[in-house]
Amino acid sequence: MAVPSPPRCQGCDAVPVTNADEGSLTSAHDRWVDRDAAVVWHGFTQMSTYAQNRPIIVDYAEGRELIDVDGTRYLDAISSLWVTTLGHRVPELDAAAREQLDRVAHTTMLGNGNRITIELAEALAPRVPVSEPHFLFASDGAAAVEQAIKIAFQFWTNQGINDRTRYLTLGGAYHGDTIGAISIGAGGFGTDVFNPLRFDVLRAPGYDDLGWADTAVAMISAHAHELAAVVIEPLVQGAVGMWLTDPESVERVGDACREHNVLLIADEVATGFGRTGTLFAAEQCRVRPDIMCIGKGLTGGYLAMAATVASRRVYEAFLGPDLSEMTLYHGHSFSGNALAAAVALRHLQLFEELDVLANVRERATQLHERLEALANGNSAIKEIRQRGLMVGVELAPPEDDLRWGRRVCAASVDRGVLLRPLGDVVVLMPILTITADEIDRIVDVLDAAINEVCAQ
Ligand SMILES: Cc1ncc(COP(=O)(O)O)c(C=O)c1O
Residues 102-113, buried b or exposed e (16+ Cβ, 10 A)? Predict the structure, then answer.
């Protein structure tokens, strides 16, 4: 197959690594990749080079390991793109899904309810850092963000305030890939082609700038009269490469929103459900967002479910006569899916029963110590950024276009640890029940991969 040279795009390294077996169809893996590439279009993936970039084709999973169609095992060190919390094929979650199947898989939430979805919302309500919350369910994180954008806008128009139409968001922000989400997102990630479709926002610096909160607070003060909301990812800007900030900076932005009567939207799609060491990152920041977006880990990574969580104040701004324009005319076909709700409810219970957060804290400390030792005196590593079990290992290639991030991850996959980079940042996002031995396995493999790729 002739493969044209693809254009490079920011955030997605689309150049093939190597492929000794290119063209041969000897293993089950090769046959499945061929079938895959013939009919499936993979997100954030250059399909002309997909086959050469060593995709793994998963057949089944056990605990924290994925087993491919050739029977090769891989430790899932990216939690299947940051969604898996307790592991794959967790008996209790499997059972919850099966039991719900014996009742009903899905019914609509538009104008009607479902018992299991109500039970889930009741269980979530005391755990989210949002006052007297209501949950508008969706399927993916981007949809939850899109809902938050619309809710914040209509919150003001429902009160007859029509000039609160803008959003203050941050450099480096990623909130998903729908048009609203990429508008409040910072660009890059290969999405610049959509610039003509983006709406305009006010943008403060991201967490890579130590003065980001000073600037954000000043902008909130100057633009409050036109701001519908401020949107942040509390503590960690994940997709840009794990940029970190401190709780006090988030608190200052939260305080400025309160002082100037601007809504605060916390996007916890990535940070939620234990990744940073608490159930939600906002808990570490003494902020209570008006609106919060959750997704990814909500069902433990089992099923597509997200939610936009609105405080009572926000929710009540939508109450009015039947069929009136006060209504939020928004809602997706699979909102509040019963199967997903059953798994999410059991997941929330298990999270406490297994004291998952204690494991996150212990393993985060171990990982921190091991990575510090790895980075010490290692010129291939520029910086380690970690909050809980969200980690970015930024490599320091001596020149552009060496594709170290891509190649180090490929070398890790060869050694049985599944990693995926963000540019030259190797992301480690282990499943939250990871053991001490598995942390050692990840760091040992990363060490070997860096030595193989970066030793000059
Ligand atoms: C902070 C944040 N918000 C939103 C999203 C979008 O979530 P989804 O991919 O489920 O649409 C992501 C995805 O990585 C994210 O990191």
Answer: eeeebeebeeee
In a domain, 34, yes or no: no
CA of 10 to the centre of ligand 1 (A): 17
Structure confidence at residue 8 as a pLDDT band (50, 70, 90):
very low
Number of structural domains (the chain) is 2
Mean pLDDT to the nearest integer, 389-403:
96
Q: What is the mean pLDDT of residues 362-367?
A: 98
State the amino acid at position 131 in one-letter form: S
Instruction: Give me the pLDDT at residue 229, please.
Output: 98
190 shares its domain with 331:
yes
- Provide the 10 A C-beta neighbour count for residue 406: 22
Q: Which of 12, 174, 334, 429 to mutate to test the pocket of ligand 1 (most atoms within 8 A of CB)?
A: 174
In a domain, 36, yes or no: no
Ligand 1: residue whose CA is nearest its atom 10: 141
Per-residue pLDDT, 9: 33
202 lies in the same domain as 109 = yes
Q: Please indicate, yes or no, whether residues 247 and 382 belong to a single structural domain of this protein.
A: no
**Average pLDDT over all residues of the chain:** 94
12: left (phi over 0), alpha (psi -120 to 50) or beta: beta
Residue 450 sits in which domain range? Answer: 56-86+356-454
Q: Is residue 225 part of a domain?
A: yes
